[in-house]
Write a structure and sequence with these properties.
The chain has about 290 residues and is of the alpha+beta class. The protein has 3 domains: about 50 residues; about 120 residues, Uridine Diphospho-n-acetylenolpyruvylglucosamine Reductase, domain 3; about 110 residues, Enolase-like, domain 1. The chain is about 25% helix and about 25% strand. The chain contains 9 helices and 14 strands. The strands form 4 sheets. It has a 5-stranded antiparallel beta sheet with strand order 4-5-10-6-7. A 4-stranded antiparallel beta sheet has the order 11-12-13-14, with helices on both faces. A 3-stranded parallel beta sheet has the order 1-3-2, covered by helices on one side. The longest helix has 20 residues. It is globular.
């Protein structure tokens, strides 16, 4: 068995992370541990575990004033211990509708009450429901160490299957989401395809956030596809083509297979690569139809 440490504050956690665990290797950080322990069923848990679930002040969603925490226009800070249930119940603007939809579809109620959004990002599964939504929100990961605090965009934080840029001495303390464009109307959505409606790993998923002006024309669009590449991908070519168009029933018809060129789906037990690509195309069109409705 490895060692187990459950600090009550961030400085104690960072002091532990600054050195190796008693076993000589880097600490394994857990919060809800809804992925960590199930993945180790049938074998001895020999890692040195740093359980951050008792740290006060890391749970909850706070409004960030303009200029604070590097957000020029302000926004929101989602604490690292904020659970999916917290997100589903939170009083948040329409830009978070897609993320809240994902919160209600992640596992069962027990998992939603325990698992955290930050843990979902740190776990870095290609099928992590939180990552496409955070990409579509232009979210930033906040990391702390004994040397200070740094911020990394979600798209740069997750680098591969179960891989991130978090250093062994760093702790994710929150996720920052910037405010939409001033004066814009914002709509967002999330859709996933699996073998059944709930308690399922996604075959493909799409998150979208669209900001429109007073005339209903798209000022900014962010669309991300998950479970169809090693890392969730933004469809930047499609986003650029949507700018200036009216958000109406016709907008979904411009989505073409070429817009999904960045995707690199695989064939596994859940679906073939060709099916995933086809499903992603349908989900993107449906997302835009829903936002235009």
């Amino acid at each position: 068995m490895g060692s187990y440490l459950r600090p009550a504050d961030v400085p104690t956690a960072l002091a532990a992370l600054a050195g190796s665990g008693p076993g000589g290797s880097a600490w394994t950080v857990v919060a809800g541990a809804t992925d960590h322990y199930p993945a180790r069923v049938g074998r001895v848990v020999d890692e040195d575990v740093l359980d951050v679930s008792a740290i006060g002040g890391l749970r909850g969603i706070l409004r960030v004033e303009p200029g604070a925490r590097g957000l020029a226009g302000g926004g929101w800070r989602i604490g690292a211990l904020t659970t999916w249930s917290d997100l589903a119940r939170a009083d948040l603007p329409s830009s978070f509708d897609g993320l809240r939809a994902a919160a209600r579809a992640v596992g069962g109620r027990q998992v939603q009450n325990r698992a955290t959004l930050a843990g979902n990002v740190c776990n870095a599964s290609p099928a992590a429901d939180g990552v496409p939504n955070l990409l579509a929100l232009d979210a930033v990961v906040e990391l702390a160490s004994s040397l200070g605090v740094r911020q990394v965009p979600v798209g740069a934080f997750v680098t591969g299957n179960r891989r991130t840029v978090r250093a062994p001495d760093e702790l994710v303390t929150g996720i920052l989401v910037p405010s939409p464009l001033a004066g814009s109307a914002v709509r967002s959505t999330f859709g996933k395809l699996g073998a059944r409606a709930y308690l399922v790993i996604s075959i493909a998923m799409v998150a979208a956030v669209v900001e429109t002006d007073g005339g209903g024309r798209i000022q900014r669009a962010r669309i991300a596809v998950g479970a169809c590449s090693e890392v969730a991908q933004r469809l930047t070519a499609l986003e650029a083509e949507l700018v200036g168009r009216r958000l109406d029933g016709a907008v979904s018809r411009i989505v073409a297979p070429d817009h999904l060129a960045a995707l690199a789906p695989i064939t596994d037990v859940r679906a073939t690569a060709a099916y995933r690509r086809s499903a992603a195309l349908v989900l993107v069109r449906r997302a835009l139809q829903e936002l235009a409705a």
